[in-house]
UniProtKB/TrEMBL annotation:
SUPFAM superfamilies: ENTH/VHS domain. Residues 1-133 form the CID domain. Residues 275-343, 361-387 are annotated as: Disordered. It comes from the Eukaryota. One of its GO terms (biological process) is mRNA 3'-end processing. Gene3D superfamilies: 1.25.40.90. Residues 375-387 have a biased composition (Acidic residues). The lineage of its organism: Eukaryota, Fungi, Dikarya, Ascomycota, Pezizomycotina. SMART domains: RPR. Pfam families: CID. GO terms for molecular function: RNA polymerase II C-terminal domain binding. This is DUF618 domain-containing protein. InterPro entries: CID_dom (IPR006569), ENTH_VHS (IPR008942), Rtt103-like_CID (IPR047883).
Amino acid sequence: MAYTDDAVLAKLSALNESHDSIATAAQWIMFHRRHADRTVQLWLQRLKDSPSPKRLNLIYLANEVTQQSKARHKDDFVLAFSPVIAEAAATAYKGAPSEVQGKLRRVIDVWKDRNIFEVPIQEAIESRIQELDKARGAPRSGFGGSIFTSSSVPSELAPLVAPQQNVSKLLLSTKAAINTANQEFDKVSDPSQPVPSAPVYAARLNGLLKNLAVAEDAVAECVKARTELIGALEKILDTNKAALAEEEAQLHTFSSRKATIDQKKKDVEFAIMRGLNERDQSPQNGHSASPEPERPEVEALTPPSGHDDFYDEPGPAMPSQAEPQTTRSPVAPPQATFHHTAAPGIDLLSTLASQYQSVPVSANGANKRRRVDSNEEFPDLGNDDGIDADVAEMLRKDSQAS
């Protein structure tokens, strides 16, 4: 089918909500992509004249055409739809049932997620939808990506909202005027086109002048709006530069303070550790506050030599023990004579002496022994202690008889 306005309108009128119908119409429209601008104009006019359900189908068709063109890297229809898509979306959204409005929001979200249109175009679409929701008192729609929505804009960026929205709105009309002026200029300036008659050529030139004037005015308005936006941005930039300089000075101040305090902390910790080390080392230097206890005296293993009672062997007699021996009368002569004389008491004395030598233990302890190792025949009995009186008398008589 050849491309004509009637053919395009027929395709749009036969459109229904099925995917096959939308895909077939989209393929035919994309085949005639050199007529993209005219097709979009007819599409917008049909959308305005259609009821709400039919408008949703036309939005689906625009979605199919733009996504397929974007996937094939053919931007003819994307550029053609960009100037009018915000108005078309607002027209389809206004007065539609809530179900249809929800479907339209999902389509707009798809455009945003897949970057079908440029950011200003996408923001303009969302802004128009939000204005409609606000006008009828409905809750805000679920567009969360725009940085210029009222709930997400910080107070510092509030002066940027109005200039940015103005630029976005002017950009749509400016692009349309620029495209029209460029196309008309190319037609008139194309050397391959035959030169029409003078009146027709003059009329074309007159129309081109009007289109160029419209494009010039649109671009001038866009330049004015963007200059205002840049001025607002510069104010915010100057404010942030001043704040940055102040914060950098504060950063330097706090960094130096931190370094000073950190050094003080290290000095205090070093002093504490040095004091602990001195206190730990003071006992080793002999400066302990409490003196060490004296070592216990070890008792000798052998008793002193003056106490002969602890010895088994005979030792030198104490002075107190020697005095009786010096005063005692010697008995050696009687013993010597008694040794050569047979006397009746000799046997008795020998028996007593042997018994006296055989006494093993004294009454003062088990380790004390008194030994008689002298060469005398009769032992020194120490003042006759322990001799019976009868025996002493008998000895005296024997000695006198001899």
